[in-house]
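PROTEIN DESIGN WORKSHEET
SECTION A - STRUCTURE
LENGTH: 286
TOKENS:
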């Protein structure tokens, strides 16, 4: 009897679609935990009668979020005015983050290649990189506002400063952590430095690069928000600052929800690209 029951369970598991097995194994547990946390949050706010300006309930945040989204993609009516809809602010923040992510990634990769190919360049650039990394970004963000004004560029530069270092460090690690035996084999067949770079060092660096890119997606959003907090006329960070000043806490939480969704979506997109590019790597096969 027990054998037949076990066989029936195995058969039912086998006929389940692959997407359902993946959803039940990966997405369902965190979704259940999130729902329980939201229910507990709603109950605590209701039972303790916490004022909405201190801690809004999840239902109030969802209602505010729908209200802001229903306004649509409406830019400010005049210079200096707040955007009429949160979609426009989201578009501005996303553009700042993506431009900064591209700049930081390109600069980080370029410096990594230069430092791994030249010992002199490494000794010359390393102290500068450490100095830039050690400087609080929020301390120099006002300088970019003075130079470029209330445009996209200051926030993009702040996002680039937040993202170039992980790409730099991971790329250097990947280029230098090649298998010594494989490197000796390349040299034994008289491979040129260019061939060693493109056919050995670059493939070995890709897993490290995508690990940094997944981290940088969130860092680029953080950099864009930091730039907007220093000085901006639009963007989610600007909207959240104005909402906090007027005690519209539910609007602040709505901005947090938007930023969280952006981070999750961009991270998943990077993971999809990684799966397509690194299909041959052991981590993706596993």
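SECTION B - SEQUENCE
RESIDUE ASSIGNMENT:
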């Amino acid at each position: 009897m027990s054998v037949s029951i076990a066989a029936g369970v195995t058969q039912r598991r086998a006929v389940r679609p692959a997407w359902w097995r993946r959803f039940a194994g990966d997405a369902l547990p965190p979704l259940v935990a999130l729902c329980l946390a939201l229910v507990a949050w709603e109950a605590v706010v209701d039972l303790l009668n916490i004022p909405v300006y201190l801690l809004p309930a999840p239902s109030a945040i969802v209602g505010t979020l729908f209200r802001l989204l229903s306004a649509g993609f409406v830019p400010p009516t005049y210079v200096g005015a707040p955007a009429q809809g949160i979609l426009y602010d989201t578009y501005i923040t996303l553009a700042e983050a993506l431009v900064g992510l591209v700049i930081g990634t390109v600069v980080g990769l370029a410096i990594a290649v230069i430092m791994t190919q030249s010992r002199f360049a490494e000794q010359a650039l390393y102290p500068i990189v450490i100095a830039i990394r050690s400087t609080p970004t929020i301390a120099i963000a006002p300088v970019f506002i003075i130079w470029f004004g209330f445009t996209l560029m200051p926030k993009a530069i702040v996002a680039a400063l937040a993202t170039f270092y992980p790409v730099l460090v991971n790329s250097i690690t990947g280029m230098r952590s090649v298998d010594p035996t494989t490197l000796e084999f390349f040299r034994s067949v008289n491979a040129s430095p260019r061939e060693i770079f493109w056919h050995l060092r670059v493939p070995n660096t890709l897993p490290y690069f995508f690990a940094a890119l997944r981290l940088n997606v969130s860092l680029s959003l953080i950099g864009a928000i930091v730039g907007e907090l220093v000085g901006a006329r639009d963007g989610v960070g600007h909207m959240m600052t104005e909402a906090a000043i007027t005690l519209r806490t539910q609007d602040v939480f709505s901005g947090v929800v938007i930023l969280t969704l952006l981070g999750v979506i961009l991270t998943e997109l990077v993971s999809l690209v990684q799966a397509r590019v690194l299909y041959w790597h052991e981590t993706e096969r596993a």
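SECTION C - NOTES
The radius of gyration is 24 Å.
The mean pLDDT is 86.
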